[in-house]
Amino acid sequence: MTLQNSNNTLFHKAVLAGCAFLLITSQAMAEVGHDDEEEHEEGHIVLTQEQIEHAGIGLAQVGSGTIRDVLPVYGVIAVNAERVQSVSARFEGSILNVTKSIGNPVRKGETLATIEANESLNTYSIKSAINGVITERAANVGEQTASRALFVIKDFSNVWAELSLFTKDLPKVSVDQEVRIHSVNSTVTANGKIVYIAPYGDRNSQTITARVLIDNPDGRWSPGQFIQAEITLSDTVAPLVVRNEALQIVEGRSVVFVQEEKGFEPRPVTLGRSDGEVTELLTGLSGNETYVTSNSFILKSEMGKEDAEHGH
């Protein structure tokens, strides 16, 4: 199965699971409404703590935040070429034993093969100099080592994000600028800094490569994977911000669901600047109010259901 097909399968499963959960949650909330009509205050949506937790509704306090001015670019994940080892035999000889195959993880100092030297007939071990994964193997028992590389080991614990810059954007970009990396489906993100800008361009694409070093301890970033990125050009502190996923459109207006004593209230807001992650609030909420940061669409859906019931 290709990486793309695998990602599509996971995405479809996630969508189906989300739909199923939303149906169950809606049914549960409907039961609460029928069992205790007094719990539904006018203009508010009442949920128990258990329903909040099961629906995955995230909460946060309104406060100040940083709005970034960014340059959006595209790129690809690449192997960190400084974390690659090509392993050859010190003395030519016969391969007596091989302990690793392609795909096997290895630790620094671990034995990869045992060799009998042709001239001295002494045996010695070939060991890995780094932690990593065997990506190439050209060693089988009984063969002569010759002068070829017997193994190639690559360390994927950190990788390069190679970003494509157009010439017109070069004056805006420099080494040490902060960058936020996103997978194409935005399920994986990482932060890093530009560590290198190529002094020459690509003849075919007419772009210049800017390289970002990304920590990858759990292997979420795979070489060859296409990515989106945002290079931070400047940032400004805003007095009040909310996360973008908190915003919903109700009757043509932007609203944020606020948690109050009576339940969740859809509060109309006036928006200011946005950087794709957080948005400035000009009116509608005050500092330290608690708002819904994630899965606010569940509350919007419940609002629509209640409006339909009241319409009848």
Automatic annotation (TrEMBL):
Residues 1-30 form the signal peptide. Keywords: Signal, Transport. Pfam families: Beta-barrel_RND_2 (PF25954), BSH_CzcB (PF25973), CzcB_C (PF25975). Residues 241-300 form the CzcB-like C-terminal circularly permuted SH3-like domain. It comes from Paraglaciecola arctica BSs20135. This is RND family efflux transporter MFP subunit. Residues 83-153 form the CzcB-like barrel-sandwich hybrid domain. Residues 158-232 form the CusB-like beta-barrel domain. One of its GO terms (cellular component) is outer membrane-bounded periplasmic space. Belongs to the membrane fusion protein (MFP) (TC 8.A.1) family. InterPro entries: Beta-barrel_RND_2, BSH_CzcB-like, CzcB_C, MFP_Cation_Efflux. GO terms for biological process: copper ion export; plasma membrane copper ion transport. GO terms for molecular function: transition metal ion binding. It comes from the Bacteria. The keyword Ligase does not apply.
